[in-house]
Write a structure and sequence with these properties.
CATH superfamily of the largest domain: Hexapeptide repeat proteins
Strand order of the largest sheet: 10-13-16-19-24-27-30-33-36-38-39
Structural class: alpha/beta
CATH class of the largest domain: Mainly Beta
Strand content: 25-35%
Length: about 350
Amino acid sequence: MPEYTLAEIAQKIGGEVHGDADIRIHGVAEIASAKKGELIFLANLKYRAQLEKTQASAVIIDAQTTETPSLPHIKAPNAYFGFLQAFLLFNQPKQMLPARIHPTAVVHKTVKIGSDVKIGAHVYLGRGVAIGDRSEIFPNCVILDDSSIGDDCRLYPLVSVREDCRIGNRVIIHNGAVIGCDGFGFAPYQGIFHKIPQVGKVVIEDDVELGANVTIDRGALGETRICQGVKLDNLVHIAHNVVVGKHTVMAAQTGVSGSTTIGENVMMGGQVGVVGHISIGDGARVSAQAGVTKGIASGKTVFGSPARPIFKARRIEATLNELPKMRKRLAILEKKLAKFEKGNNQPL
């Protein structure tokens, strides 16, 4: 197991040591379970009470914070990212596949495979498929005709990539995801829904990560595009001809309907539902379980179903919470009004 001094860790993550720089660290841990010789981080001040109880030997904190922990610490430009860098020092990625093509893999004679590629058991690679250098295709993955996978990609078990899909470099796709399945396109005629052939493409750009059971549909024409650096959580559904802008993130069970355009650096909470044919601007924030029925301007935060600007939605929510009291007060006022009208023998 590797071991570093606090000073060595600080140098590697671009931080500054305060306290004993020669303390030896052999691992990282959560604040509540850490032991002697382990390193923790504090990015959220609501956990500072636990900092006084921790058994950790050192902590990473934000350089901007006014907190001064009693134990030795590293001030980093960003505590969370600094901890990630430290985590990687002690936890190198595991090598789970041998550097070979497993004998049970079915590989068409026209497939192009780069150097140092790893292909697991029972993988299927169709006609004209291309796999880039150092990519890993885990057991039971299926990549259909004329699709391409870039360099340094990792496709976990049971990923399906349909025909004519383009996947960039350093893409991670988790178990059970389906890329390029048919969009939900049908033409109603005489009481019957007739399938519209879906021959569009799906393009996944560089540095994208797709969670387990993500589904990304192709359209009848054109392309569905997931831009650079996008991160999609488990069970996210992206419909046909959607464009998801760079470095946008979506939490689990979010669904985006067809032909919607989502800007860059957008954040969506879990179980968000988005209608089709709208635009969501750069930097927008969509709270969990919001129902987005119309476009959202850049930088706006929305909440609720239907989704509204968050401050308006909170006022409406607060008013709804007061309705039982308001109903009681209304009943009292109605009784008083009835007595008043009866005493005057005429309505107001």
